[in-house]
Automatic annotation (TrEMBL), chain A:
Keyword Membrane belongs to the record: yes
Chief location bin: membrane
Assembly behavior: Forms a membrane-associated complex with FtsE.
Function: Part of the ABC transporter FtsEX involved in cellular division.
Source organism of the structure: Nonomuraea soli
Residue ranges of every copy of the ABC3 transporter permease C-terminal domain listed in the record: 181-299
Protein name per the record: Cell division protein FtsX
UniProtKB/TrEMBL annotation, chain B:
Taxonomy of the source species: Bacteria, Bacillati, Actinomycetota, Actinomycetes, Streptosporangiales
Residue span(s) of domain ABC transporter: 2-228
SMART domains recorded: AAA
Biological processes per GO annotation: cell division
Name recorded for this polypeptide: Cell division ATP-binding protein FtsE
One matching Pfam family: ABC_tran
Native source species: Nonomuraea soli
């Protein structure tokens, strides 16, 4: 095996087909970056679900003196009303426990769960509403509690945190599906481009390959330069995708994570996994696509 | 060395066979001219020896191997033992004489040291000493054909197939080409040459196999191009 010789053939092939090679590299880079972003969103959503679904509660927000809610009629909840509500909640079979959260506790929770400095600076304890935090036995069965609390005297609003998160996760799931679909489309485009590049390359080098066949070069020797051209283009494209993923982590996910609890942030090891997978998939797609096209255009 | 037994070849979409029940034996270190009008099947005969085409019926043995039973995987090894030259030389225009000859060894994975040793020898054998660094477009047709012969012979094949090697070359230069082929033949290599060149065939007085419409109509040792002449 003459590695030098094959590498020089590969180099000649890549240079001769420069525009097509660049097109392949760009599409592979974009396709693999989309795929990697899909991976990252999946990881992010899973770690956020793990973190949040443990903690979701039904919040029964109480009327305060200057509440804008018409149900409150401008009055704060009285001590008697609060007592009735608490007794009612505790008597319900779906409820595991009820905690009263005053303004100070609400502010403290807010400080802990939000990492955004600007948001913290403009918020004071006085802005925080009082509420009952209702822990459910089964987070999936919340309707009876919601119905029992809705419109009761002294109740400003009832919020199932699960619903808030559900909308948010739905959005993330849609983003992830979108990046997978886009990745699929771009990957198909890159496969077609690779097929065309190999076809052109085989045509450009038909003299060489004809002579190689005639003097008894093995199929491996004849095909390897073409497959390696595809492999190198795939590798460069995937490295481009890796750079894009690192940029996405630094400039998109990290920005976005200032709003997330520390426990659910996307870690660098997930990025590393996404890069390894996209690299393997990107190179594999290019190698397989070149090999399959070669079978059609290079008689051996 | 080459053994055709009742070989018939019909190309796809053709009703007339290109070779029609051809049986012939060519021994080791023989020199054979293959003559006949255009379309009589000479090139087909050579392509069958290389297993570039398969016969529809009949058996072909080359160097003791039954080609029908030779797996595709082994075909390259068969071709390493057969050299080929053509009317159109088939050189690589972006490689010089040395590189064109070395290419044949590089692509079969021969070590660089071996290549450095044998390529100059064979360039000298075909009479191109001192021109190793010329590009093909800096050579005459006759010189280009010598490069092609050097490339075909550099791996010391047992058989050399030549398909109208003098077809693009003037008669005076052709004599030089024939001298090289004769020199190659004298090293023990079997040479089969398809040609239309009556003067060459008549001057060499070698075995002549004549094809017409795919059939062998004459097989004569020390023959001439055509009996009519
Ligand atoms: N690849 C092919 N497909 C179909 N028919 C072919 C093919 N190659 C050759 N033929 C036909 O087979 C017959 C023999 O062709 P071949 O090339 O062997 O003749 P030849 O003796 O070499 O002719 P020439 O002296 O012109 O080179 C011809 O009728 C030709 O048209
Ligand atoms: Mg012919």
């Amino acid at each position: 095996m003459r590695i030098n010789f094959i590498l020089s053939e590969v180099w000649i092939g890549l240079r001769r087909n420069l525009t097509m090679t660049v097109a392949v590299i760009v599409t592979v880079a974009v396709g693999m970056a989309m795929l990697g972003v899909g991976f990252l969103i999946t990881t992010q959503v899973n770690s956020m679900k793990d973190y949040w679904f443990d903690k979701v509660e039904v919040s029964v927000f109480l009327c305060s003196k200057n509440s804008a809610d018409p149900d409150c009629k401008g009055k704060g909840a009285t001590a008697a009303e609060m007592e009735t509500l608490k007794a009612k909640l505790e008597s319900m079979p779906e409820v595991e426990g009820v905690i009263f959260e005053n303004k100070a506790a609400a502010y403290k929770n807010f400080q802990e769960s939000s990492a955004s400095k600007t948001l913290l600076e403009v918020t004071t304890a006085e802005d925080m509403p009082e509420s009952f935090r209702v822990k459910l036995k089964n987070p999936d069965i919340s309707t009876p509690v919601l119905q029992a609390m809705q419109g009761q005297p002294g109740v400003s609003s009832v919020v199932n945190q699960r619903d808030l998160l559900g909308g948010f996760f739905g959005l993330l799931d849609a983003l992830r599906s979108a990046s997978y679909v886009l990745a699929g489309v771009v990957v198909i485009a890159s496969i077609l481009l690779i097929a065309n590049t190999v076809r052109l390359s085989a045509f450009n080098r038909r003299r060489e390959t004809g002579i190689m066949r005639l003097v008894g070069a093995s199929n491996l020797y004849i095909q390897l330069p073409f497959v390696m051209e595809g492999m190198i283009a795939g590798l460069i494209g995937s490295v481009g995708a890796a750079i894009m993923l690192i940029l996405a982590k630094v400039f998109v996910f990290e920005e976005f994570q200032t709003f997330l609890a520390p426990g659910s942030q996307l870690q660098w090891d997930s990025v590393a996994w996404a890069i390894v997978w996209t690299l393997v998939i990107g190179v594999a797609i290019c190698v397989v696509a070149s090999f399959v096209t070669l079978r059609r255009y290079l008689r051996v | 060395m080459i053994h055709f037994d009742n070989v018939t070849k019909v190309y796809a979409n053709q009703n007339r066979p290109a070779l029609d029940h051809v049986s012939v034996d060519i021994d080791k270190s023989e020199f054979v001219f293959l003559v006949g009008p255009s379309g009589s099947g000479k090139s087909t005969f050579l392509r069958l020896i290389l297993k570039e085409e398969r016969p529809n019926s009949g058996a072909i043995h080359v160097a003791g191997k039954d080609l029908a039973r030779l797996s595709n995987f082994k075909v390259p090894h068969l071709r390493r033992r057969i050299g080929c030259v053509f009317q159109d030389f088939r050189l690589l225009p972006n490689k010089n004489v040395y590189e064109n000859v070395a290419f044949a060894l590089e692509v079969i994975g021969k070590p660089r040291r071996f290549i450095r040793k044998v390529v100059p020898e064979v360039i000298e054998l075909v009479g191109l000493e001192g021109k190793a660094h010329r590009m093909p477009d800096e050579l005459s047709g006759g010189e280009q054909q010598r490069v092609a012969m050097a490339r075909a012979f550099v791996n010391r094949p047992m058989i050399l197939l030549a398909d109208e090697p003098t077809g693009n070359i003037d008669p005076a230069t052709s004599i030089g080409i024939m001298k090289v082929l004769d020199r190659i033949n004298r090293t023990g290599t079997t040479v089969v040459m398809a040609t239309h060149d009556a003067a060459i065939v008549d001057s060499m007085r070698k075995r002549v196999v004549e094809l017409e419409d795919g059939k062998i109509v004459r097989d004569q040792s020390r023959g001439v191009y055509g009996q009519a002449y």
